[in-house]
Amino acid sequence: MTDRLITHLRHVDLAVPDLARQQDFYTGAWGLAEEHSDTGITFLAAEGSPEQYVVRLRHAADKRIDLIAFGVATAADVDTLAGRLAAAGITLVHEPRALDTPGGGYGFRFFDNEGRTIEISADVGTRAHRRIEEGESVPVRLSHVVVNSADPEGTRAFYERHLGFRLSDTLMHPRMGAMMYFLRINAWHHSLAIARGPHPALHHASFELRGLDEYMRGTGRLLRAGVEKIWGPGRHLAGHNTFSYFLDPHGNTVEYTTELEQVDEDGWHPQLHDFSKPEVSDQWGTANAMNEFVARKSFNDPDKGLFVAPPV
Fold it and tell me: Which domains are present in the chain?
């Protein structure tokens, strides 16, 4: 395992055939703010986050993950990580350079072991953000991203070996074995998780709300708006966070959450959680049962962006 230079999750970028419909969902029902737009592309911020944007939407013929972006502390760390990856034979999409996305900065992109485009950046300007007030049911920040993997053990090993991610917990099933690895890059229980699936794809993107009341208000607002709920509301055991999963207009699963656990990294020991036990999936017992039909919704469509870098 390499030493850890990555500090945090920045944003997840999605390409979709119907940009207007997707943008309307995320700025309307979901509660993100449109910060920057250009022809065929829009950048959406979380009101409580200093990140320039937490979701980027781009019009494209095919639905795909464009990229997942992480931050490091300095430009020197960008160069160090790029050098390490190149020396390990990992394909760089582009070398470290000045970025022309909102906030600027300095960064590079590469393909992970399954072909997802990953961006690493530093020196990105922060945006003017605000404290989310009591009762406001809008996202504070992007909490975590979960990806489906046809090779979850290999994908876990890639992120641990090359990027310094650390295992927090594992979900397992007595018949199916390890089903999800929760990986952290800071004190948050997970910023990335890897789920066993039939093909690489987005499993879900999760957004943190201010607290329990705001999380429930947001969940209720989406239900009243007729947004399709997949699973929830409830509280997981691994990570201890709440969950309400919904589908966006293109069938991507998105989650409202709050109270994700922060771990004592010096004393933390990863646990193996058997999610065939109902209290592991949902401590409260308030969510609809996790079953094959719920799980299938999060398999998503096979990602058509593997080993194909987004044009912007």
Answer: 6-122 (3.10.180.10), 141-297 (3.10.180.10)
